[in-house]
Structures are given as structure tokens and as C-alpha cells.
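S.,

Sequence below, as promised.
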Amino acid sequence: MESLLFFLQLSLLFYVSCASQSPYSNFLPCLVSHSPPSSQIDQVVYSTDSSSYPSILRSSIRNLRFMNSSGPQFIITPRNESHVQATVICCRKLGLRLTVRSGGHDYEGLSYKAATPFVIIDLVNLRKVSVSLDTNTSWVESGATLGELYYQIANSSSKLGFPAGVCPTVGVGGHFSGGGQGLMSRKYGLAVDNVLDAIMVNANGAVLDRESMGEDLFWAIRGGGGASFGVILSWKIKLVPVPPIVTICDVPKTLEEGATKLVHLWQQLAHKFHKDMVMRVIISLANNTKGEKTVKTLFNPFYLGTIQQLIPLMDVSFPELGLAAKYCHESSWVETFAEGKPVEVLMNRSHVTKVYFKGKSDYVNEPIPESGLEEMWKVFLEGEAGVLIWDPYGGKMSEITENETPFPHRAGVLYNIQYYNEWGEEGIEAERKHVEWTDNIYKYMTPFVSKSPRRAYLNYKDIELGRNNENGNTSFLEASVWGERYFKNNFKRLALIKGRVDPNNFFRDEQSIPPLR
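The prediction came back faster than expected:
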């Protein structure tokens, strides 16, 4: 029925009087005229009048802070590259803003909101994963989630995996194009360090692969934010060996149990551990044995091997932690991401509860002294506390140069910090309290983190670092305020590439790369 109504409306639009020639009234006829007759583009276009529009818009909004933001005039859910080409051509021809959404985990919602009227390409229908055991590679479409990718890899081979993030509902497109750190980054590098090719649609509507886009643009989309340069349709990735058994441990320590000294020591050791192990530290609020508020630090080793292999390694590398088998369990690599549920849950794009949240990030190059940690705990305990997630670098991360990809946070980085605060209560006051806590702990950390500039991870996007003008004419110098925090000296090269491939800044948002000519 929706398809029939679409064509009835379309027929009227073709013959409407010249008095009502708005860009949006011309959008649907334009799509049809730039699509092959067999493409059935009418089946993937949803206007604000479509009955399915609200559910499709909300389906991939992960941050409830932006659930009530102004929606797009149209949502396109392409099933093939011609649908994307037509959308890009028509948005550009008619002067319409375009955003691209893969999994909807953009921390600031920039993939599905804008201050001016816009159109969304939602890649939910482009999520095919094909695995080649002959070459140990995979092609994965950008609309797939990490969970879908991991499940399909494991379904093809128990001996292969891929080094990317821990959240299974994160979309491949955004995660890869921002870098993609995860549990195997110390062993194999980031997701983008293992990308071999990509297919994209550029601002002219042309379909490009690595050869036709050239090495500069291929460099830019691997960590420089793909949405600044085009619509990335799919990625060819190099799969990596994984053992049949991996080990995950959780060792909780409160302040009363010596967390301060252990965290201080961890800072000096974690980046030097064996590459087969990563030990995150997750800092959260808890109650002590007296029922009083305290800080809990969860030491969270992940090891490519068995418990029997890990314990002796830890007895040498970090004996002070007192790691014992009772804190650990073994699983396959893919089961790690299912968190105790059947692995089929990884194919469920919406199994993670949606919440309100705010995130920020930092990089640390020198250990924070014990006195600094002790003061940090005090700030942590004030207000509506969230969590801090500390991910150690080193290993393969230190072996890759700063300019090999746009992601520059390599040698010399001890660990990355994510400040993450989520809440379930609606309203401005609830948001104010939680964001205030995040801002306070971030401000406190200023003397202890990277400087000139204070760096940040693109995939933990933070609009408070700075934003582009809505009119799209932000200068390179103005954008450097936030751009150099994400990319350091690579920001200029990104802007020069942008100036060559998208000089009119068609692909833009509040933190997109500006064109430098």
C-alpha cells in the first residue's frame, strides 16, 4: 500500500505547478530519474508522512538525549549502491544536507540529527558479511554491527577473528572510520590497521574502490572519519588468528582494598604486558563493607590463551594484583562479546538497552602519581558518578607510526581514558547533573593527561571540544581547535584531501573535516 501511495504522490509531484518548487518536493522525482528502473528505490524512501518513519528513525538512536531532536525530511534505507548514488546526487543537486548512519552509536548523535533540514542515509539494509578462508579476509558492509561481523567470522572459522571494539551493536561504518580500538589492539592494532580495501560513493555520486579513489583518500577514511569524505559502503578486512580458548578475568578492588597503589602500579606496567594480553581498568561507584560510598576499580584482563597459561604470566608481570583462577573464566573468542548469552544474540542489533549518556576521552603519557589518584577519587565521589574506562596501549599500537593512518595516538601513549556517564531519568535537571559530573572529573584530569593539544579519540566524539559553523564555511584554523585533538598533525593532511575530493564541503556536520585548498 505504501508503495502505491508513493507512486500516486510522485505522479502528482511531476505535474505540480511551478509555484511549489521546493527542494523537498523535487527530491522524490529526482531519485527516480537518477535510479535504474529495476532499482525499486520507492521501497527504501520514507518521508515524514510514512507510517514506518518514526520506528525507522528511532531504531538506531542509541543515545536517548537525542531521541526528540528534529528528524530528517526523508530517510533512505538503501539496498544497493545505486540507491546511495541517487541520494547523494539528488541531495547535492537540490542543496539538501545529508547524514549517514550505520549503527547509531555516534556519541553526539551527528549521524541522525542536524540543525537544518536534512536527509538520512541509514545503512541498516547494507550489512552483508562474506568471509574468504582462502585469503583470510572478509568483505563487510558498513551497516553491519560488530556483533554481526564477529558472529559471521566465527561461523566460518573458529580460528579467525578481527581486532575491533567490545560493544556488539556498534556499526562497522562509524567504528572503522574512526579507528576502532578493542581487546586485540595490543596484538594486532586497530580495526583500520587491518583494512585492505573499501567501496565508497563520493560527493559526485561515483562508486570508488581503493584503486580508483587513490591512496590519499584511502588513507583518510581509515581513521579520519569516513562521513567527511563520502558514504563508505563496505570494507575489505584482514582476519587474524585467534586461539580456541581465551580468558577473561574480573578482579575488583576498592579503595579500602588497596586500589590506589594497584592503579598506580598498573599505569607503569600495562602498556608493557605481553601482546596477547590487555588489562583494562574500569572505575565505578560502589559500597564498602560498612555500606559507605567508595570507589571500585575492576581489573579486567583479556588473554589470548587459557587460565593455566595466564596465571604464571601474571605472577611475573603483575604479582601485586594477586590474580587467581577464581576470578577468571574461559570461552571462545566470539563468546566474549555475547557476555554469557548464546552467541546468536550478536545478530540482534537492538539487544542493548538504550540510555541517556555523555562521553569524553583523554590520553595519558605519564603515570598519574598516587597523590593525584587520591584527589581524583574525591572528585569521582562527588555528584552523579559515571564510570572511567582505562584502555592500555603499547604492543602493536606503539609499532605503528603516527601518520600511517589519521589515528595518531601511538608510541608514547600509556592508556586511553573514556569518561562515560549514563542515566535513565528524563529531563533537563537529570542531564545537567550527570554532564556536570563528567565535566568536573574531566577538568580535574587536565594536569595529568596529554597536552598541546589535549588529545581525544574520535569514536568518543565530544562536541564540547568545538564545532563547525552550520553554514559550512568553517575555516581550517577554526576547526583546528577540535581537529588537532583528534588527529594531531594529521589534521592538515585530512583537510587538504578534503579540499581535493569534496571542495564544496557537501559531506559535513558539526565536526567534519573542513576543505583546505
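The longest strand covers residues 277-287.

Coffee later?
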